[in-house]
Amino acid sequence: MIKKFLHALTGSVEINSRNFRVFVAEPVSLSSLEESIEGEKCFSCTREAGEREKLTIQEKSLFGGCRPALEVLGEMALLQGARNKAVAEKIQTPRFVLDLNTVENSSERTNKLAELLARQIADKGKGVILDWNSGQILYTSPGVKPPTNPAVENDKPQLQIEWSISAKVRPKDFMPGVLTLWQSLEPRLLPLQFGSSGAVNCPINDHNYESFINRLEESANEPLRSVEWHGDYPVQTGSFLHAADASGYKKLPDRYSPRHLLTLQIDMGPFENESDFSAKFEDFFRRTAIASNAFFASAIVIRFGVAPNGWPQYMVDDYSLSFGPWWEGLPSLPYWLGWYGSTYYPLVKEALASVPHAKEFPGQGMLLKLGDFPQNLDELQDKFPQLPNELLLLETTVQSPGSMRSRTYDSAKQIPDL
Length: 418
Hints:
This protein has two domains: about 1-140, 2-Layer Sandwich (TATA-Binding Protein), CATH 3.30.310; about 155-410, no CATH class. About 35% of the residues are buried. The protein has about 425 residues and is α+β, with helices and mostly antiparallel strands. The strands form three sheets. Strands 8, 9, 10, 11, 12, 13, 14, 15, 16, 17, 18 and 19 form a twelve-stranded antiparallel sheet that branches. The protein has a seven-stranded antiparallel sheet with strand order 2-3-4-5-1-6-7, with helices on one face. The chain has helices spanning about 1-10, 30-40, 85-90, 110-125, 170-185, 210-220, 275-290, 345-350, 375-380; strands at about 20-25, 45-50, 55-60, 65-75, 95-100, 125-130, 135-140, 155-165, 190-195, 200-205, 225-230, 235-240, 255-265, 295-305, 310-315, 325, 335-340, 360, 365-370, 395, 410. The two termini are about 30 Å apart. It is elongated and about 75 Å long.
């Protein structure tokens, strides 16, 4: 999976397996594929039930043995936040997605079978095949209904919310409470499907989050330590980055602390006409910070364009407040909402005491809110209060307009015990 992520991001890592996502308008049963595989002398398969039905296909060897070859995951509802620009340009209303993934170093026979099955699925479901490795449409079924309106880039602003959480606690300690809170405050923001970066393929049924929370726990042992998810519209993506183990790094910052990072990216469009938007999000933001015992949280406005292969691409006014796997200090760039938990609260209290936009919650933390509606970086520059310099990251490389390269920073001079 790490190879897939780096290939999509840079194009410099070779992928030696085939990976297809088939977007269809009509349901497709895996039983029809079984019949096709039975006619293949070189392959056998087993079908398993589960949250997603699965076909595990093995390739027969010349000496009578078998080896894993290909996995097919059955249909999963397609959420709006999971839609790809390249797909949207070819099909009007994709409703389901199916996944086909060969093993590493798959044989030519396996690769041909994977493409053959993907085409069968597309034809039966009136859909299209996305070659995950290239981000391009491989095949469009003759039965596909094309879109009535051409796809447009999603350059509308999104709200990116991040909660930084001490590595001393585990996901199972706080995520059940966070999910219960989201259910009561804003069910639209709950995760519905989750998976590794770029492969969100596990559905959540009937608010049963046991598998989801287990995956957050297990991500500590994965190369990217990250779990992504999609929710109901307007959630574009959510993610959880597990705290890193310093023993696996040869070079470390001068000053740092491990932390978990919980993130939501939300399309603000649906909320623009809701009269209680401002109060609702302030409450959601603050109470999630308290439920997760976040030592810092922020909300900023970002805007994404879309690259030709359908992958998100930074635009001029995009910026981030998180850098690498470590907590290295408070951001020096401004943010619309800020939360300073029990660790930072005593250190910023004096600086924010006379700031009209700051609100104290005794024993819990301090909230900073610059305006009723989210504002972008330029709008916030002259409004943001001065916090103690020793707590702030020092910017060393400024982000170029339109670049995917992040700013770089030196660690803050003071990082409290988190």
